[in-house]
Amino acid sequence: MNSEITLRKAETIDRDIIWGIIQQSIERRKQDGSTQWQNGYPNLGTVESDIAKGFAYVLTVDGEIAVYAALILNDEPAYSTIEGAWLSDGEFVVVHRVAVDEKFAGQGMVKKLFDHIEEFTKSHGIQSVKVDTNHDNIAMLKILEGKGYSYCGEVLLKDGMRKAFEKIII
Q: Is the pLDDT of residue 165 over 80?
């Protein structure tokens, strides 16, 4: 039997579940030896802000939250300065703070998330998806490569340099 997988905007009632998933991801990154998310960011305030601003999205499996991500339209100040070059300068969706519930880890959920994000992007007539990740986040680097994202260079976020990627959708 196929599960129903949907992407929806997160609501205030989802806050604690999302925060729990992010805490799992922070610990998983630590166990993997990654330096990403090891300095108090993201935190509960980040989740609350994402929800309040309408950036918070969840991928659900049969109604249960499996993955969290922040989707931001055309707004990532750090992306205006890149050591390298973006593929495009049109409208874009920024993907930040991807976190998977450990119950769904290893099941290809982040790939499914990106499928849904790309469909969302296309349905809104937006040109591309931009994303960054830490140099030592091997799982995300492999996913981005597998999904056809192009490495564009490095961007400086408040917690350090990140590898930046873009995929043209339309």
A: yes
pLDDT tens, position by position, 9-41 = 999 999 999 999 999 999 999 998 888 898 888
**Both tokens assigned to 39:** 């300095």
What tokens were used for 168? 């043209």
Angle between helical axes of 109-123 and 138-146 (0-180°, round to 10): 50
Query: DSSP string spanning 17-66?
Result: HHHHHHHHHHHHHHHTT--TT-SS-S-HHHHHHHHHHT-EEEEEETTEEE
Q: Which residues of 55-75 are buried (b: 16+ CB within 10 A; e: fewer)?
A: bbbbbbbeeebbbbbbbbeee
Phi, psi of 52 (to 5 degrees): -60, -35
In the CATH scheme, what is the homologous superfamily, with its name and number, of domain 5-168? Gcn5-related N-acetyltransferase (GNAT) (3.40.630.30)
How far apart (Å, rounded) are the C-alpha atoms in residues 48 and 50?
A: 5
